Amino acid sequence: MTMPYVIGADLPDMPAGQRFRALLERPEILRMPGAHLGIAALLAKKQGFEALYMSGAAMSATMGLPDLGMITVEDVCWYVRQVTRASGLPVLVDGDTGYGEALNVMHMVRCFEDAGAGAVHLEDQLLPKKCGHLNDKKLASADDMSAKVAAARKARRHLYIIARTDAVASEGMDAAVDRAKRYLEAGADAIFPEALTTREMFEEFARRMPGVKLLANMTEFGRTPFFTAAEFQAMGYAMVIWPVSHLRIAAKAMGELYAEIRAEGGTHKSVGKMQTRAELYETIGYHEYEALDASLVKTVVPMGMPQV
Questions:
Q1: For this structure, is 67 an active site residue?
Q2: In what order do the strands lie in the sheet with 119-123?
């Protein structure tokens, strides 16, 4: 097994934003599963993923909060630091509405870069924001959102900036396309059209954004039908995320475990579903850390009595 990334000698020689951009230069779609915890990042990396997504909804839910724009920049940075430190992979971070106006967006960009993020997406909702697949979302004006995008662009050193528009549901396709063009003019590197509901809508948006890098969101229990990464690529999308899938699986399993402990008085019926101690240690590089510590901390043998 390879030593956990940040401890080893193979530290990246390029900032995360540049590495993220390089991945998008390849012809195949960039697949980014949600992974907002260090252990999740290691498991995803083990399966060969080269970039990860960090969902505001997943981070909020892990803190026991709804996805209503309640968490702070520093809350998110705490998650970003552990994921990037554990995996060394470039991550796309959900920046919600930017935690305020233009100056707040600039602060967010610098904080995310310092924490190790490779990319961020900003959305054109107003607070309290909602999951993009829920109803009655309230939108900021295109001017206000463009100002935020411009502020992010001005503040960034390397961070890749994706502008998300939630306008399709309330303003229609034409307005969403117009907004997207405004956001590109303001400095966005790519566009994220949220909550499209049919294949035809995905295809139309891509057709009306020629040459633009587009992000698709494949979330469960939302308004978007199930499509594979290959299908999104065929529709003209350069990136796809599965934002909360890992949390849904884990939360369901934890709920079932707690129910079993309550009903059975123990975990004996669930042992077969658990990651073993050996598997956990292999994932987190336990023995490699242990060996590294032993190689650095050597016993110093006294050669004689101290002199008075």
A1: yes
A2: 30-33, 239-242, 213-217, 190-193, 160-165, 119-123, 91-94, 52-54
Place of tokens 């699986």: 249
> How many other C-beta atoms are found inside a 10 Å radius of the C-beta of residue 159?
27
CA distance 233 to 223: 19
pTM above 0.85, yes or no: yes
Catalytic residue among 21, 31, 79, 94: 94
123 belongs to the catalytic site? yes
| Fold designation for 16-243 | TIM Barrel (3.20.20)
Instruction: Provide the angle, in degrees to the nearest 10, between the axes of the packed helices 73-87 and 38-46.
Output: 40
Determine whether 131 is an active site residue.
yes
Per-residue pLDDT of 142-193, as tens digits, reads 999 999 999 999 999 999 999 999 999 889 999 999 999 999 999 999 999 9
Largest CA distance in the chain: 88
Q: Where are the domains of the chain?
A: 16-243, 252-294
